Amino acid sequence: MQDPIIDVTDQLDQYAMDVIGSGLNAFNDENTGINDRLPLGVLVKDPASGKVVGGVTGRTSLGLLFLDVFYLPKEYRQAGLGSRILQLAENEGRRRGCCAAVLYTINFQAPGFYERHGWRRFGEIPCLPPGTSRIFMTKDL
After folding, report:
1. Contacts of 50 (CB under 8 A, 6+ apart)
2. pTM for this entry
3. Tens-digit pLDDT profile for residues 11-61
4. Which among 54, 59, 57, 50 is positioned nearest to 24, based on CA atoms?
5. Pseudo-torsion of CA 65, 121, 83, 58, nearest 10°?
6. DSSP one-letter string for the chain
7. In what order do the strands lie in the sheet with 132-140?
8. What domains can you pick out in the chain, each with its CATH number?
9. Is there a contact between 55 and 44 (Cβ–Cβ < 8 Å)?
10. How far apart are CA 115 and CA 125, in angstroms?
11. Which intervals hold domain N-acetyltransferase (predicted)?
């Protein structure tokens, strides 16, 4: 057998993502006997156009809720909207049988927001620019 070609790229197509993702999913299913992964979105839509303007995306798998990206435009950062979105995501995680949740944020983003909602830090890694760090957080559900 010839050695495989290894290509480092910043151009990932859907086919490559599907091959890698489905391969890992099959491996995990074989080793755990559990296939419970589902995407999760709590979407905020503009009332006039119905278009998505923000929200949170993530997934659930093997009893964990993963929050990946949380964004609200400035005009939607009104009192309580972010808290409602976070609570809805956590509630959906509980409904799906998750016992804990994980996320990471950056020190200039929202660690205080998450801490006010019962999340706790379990790790921090410095990144660029100097003085910046990624903060890893978890919450029991």
Report:
1. none
2. 0.90
3. 999 999 999 999 999 999 999 999 999 999 999 999 999 999 999 999 999
4. 59
5. -30
6. -PPPP----S---HHHHHHHHHHHHHHHHHHHS----EEEEEEEE-TTT--EEEEEEEEEETTEEEEEEEE--GGG--TTHHHHHHHHHHHHHHHTT-SEEEEEEETTSSHHHHHHTT-EEEEEEEETTTTEEEEEEEEE-
7. 38-45, 52-61, 64-71, 100-106, 132-140, 120-127
8. 38-140 (3.40.630.30)
9. yes
10. 18
11. 1-141
State both tokens at 98. 């998750």
Residue type, 9: T
- Amino acid in the structure at residue 2: Q
- Encoded tokens for 91: 């509630």
Write the single-letter amino acid at 95. Answer: R
